[in-house]
Amino acid sequence: MTTSAVSTFQAPKGTYDLLPPDSAVFLAVREAIAAPLRNAGYGYVETPGFENVELFSRGVGESTDIVSKEMYAFETKGGDKLALRPEGTASVLRAALEANLHKLGNLPVKLWYSGSYYRYERPQKGRYRHFSQVGAEAIGAEDPVLDAELIVLADQAYRSLGLRNFRILLNSLGDKECRPVYREALQGFLRGLDLDEETRRRIEINPLRVLDDKRDAVQKQLVGAPMLRDYLCDACKAYHEEVRELLGAQGVAFEDDPKLVRGLDYYTRTTFEFVHDGLGSQSAVGGGGRYDGLSEMIGGPSLPSVGWALGVDRTVLALEAEGVTAAVPATTAVFGVPLGDEARRVLFGTVTELRKAGVAADLAYGGKGLKAAMKAANRSGARFALVAGERDLAEGVVQLKDLDSGEQAPVRLEEIVTTVKERLA
Ligand code: AMP
């Protein structure tokens, strides 16, 4: 057998593989984000990796980069127009509406999800074409406590992982009463600026996004632009003030960011982003907000809702940037080293018993000799090796070797599980 041959294939551009041991950190991050949600009454939802393309063009918005430039849209052999999901909210809301979850019981319907998302982006560190999010949505209630709850839960998730250098940016985008008035005022201001063709087009379809332009030449001209904060109607102002107070009362620090707009069309009122200062240009580790109009945009009833999505890839990068080691469940604790065919059968049984008893155990495969098998045992990170040869088996024992100290002693076969558990405790 040769192991030196390399596959001719590579992971597609903008993607990467999750491999051990790093993959364990990803699982730990997903779990850490999910735990506070489960604890707060959110139920797990899973939707397909692709949807009718219209769901996103109507829901997320034709004018957004996500839909107009970055969507993996395709036509099937059967003529269906589909797209790989670029985000989670539209799909989750579609699923909730389709199953009539909003009619079954108390509102809000609280759901969480975890999965892969796809955007045809220009890849760079922290920005991929395939990435992973854990998200939460609270559908069908207008209550500032819900907005605050979600922000608190995300804060808790990041803190439980040991992250410290993140900030919460908060803004209100107004509602269908006050935002159009602001939009017009902003358009009036923007039309008077010296901007390129594409940006001028953006003024007409999505003027708020111009505020988000990263270029200095544009930012300089934006000084003195009308701010949404000055246009909020009384209801939006009061709502926002209450969200701010609720967060303050829970001891969650945030920064007011009147320029925060985010890249999706469906947001109204509360909008927030979690940014990490150790990540360079791709600093957003998560974000979300209220989307009171989305249900109607995709043909449903009025269901004011709020949610967020946290990026797993970037959270892992943030942990690295802070030098935090996520608590990863223990890998192999015991490693079987069988010497000969009989020993292989016996140790396979022992390893199975250990696993059933909740002890992580592994085995040398392929008839390795003592030297190669011990090397495998050491490489596995196990605390103990169970070495068994013909003579041991004849005496009804295996050798339990402590791989840290090198000490070794025989243990009777029927006592292995108890002995190992004692020694590991
Ligand atoms: P968004 O849906 O754009 O609000 O994104 C929510 C979170 O998902 C972001 O804060 C990122 O952490 C993550 N995310 C979005 N796009 C990408 C991407 N292309 N690569 C990696 N993570 C991403």
TrEMBL record:
Residue sites binding L-histidine per the record: E87, G88, T89, R119, Q133, E137, R262, Y266, Y267
Domain of life: Bacteria
Xref: InterPro entries: aa-tRNA-synth_II, aa-tRNA-synth_II/BPL/LPL, Anticodon-bd, Anticodon-bd_dom_sf, His-tRNA-ligase, HisRS-like_core, HisRS/HisZ, HisRS_anticodon
Keywords: Aminoacyl-tRNA synthetase, ATP-binding, Cytoplasm, Ligase, Nucleotide-binding, Protein biosynthesis
GO terms, biological process: histidyl-tRNA aminoacylation
Subcellular localization: Cytoplasm
SUPFAM superfamilies in UniProt: Class II aaRS ABD-related, Class II aaRS and biotin synthetases
SUBUNIT field: Homodimer.
UniProt record similarity statement: Belongs to the class-II aminoacyl-tRNA synthetase family.
Protein name: Histidine--tRNA ligase
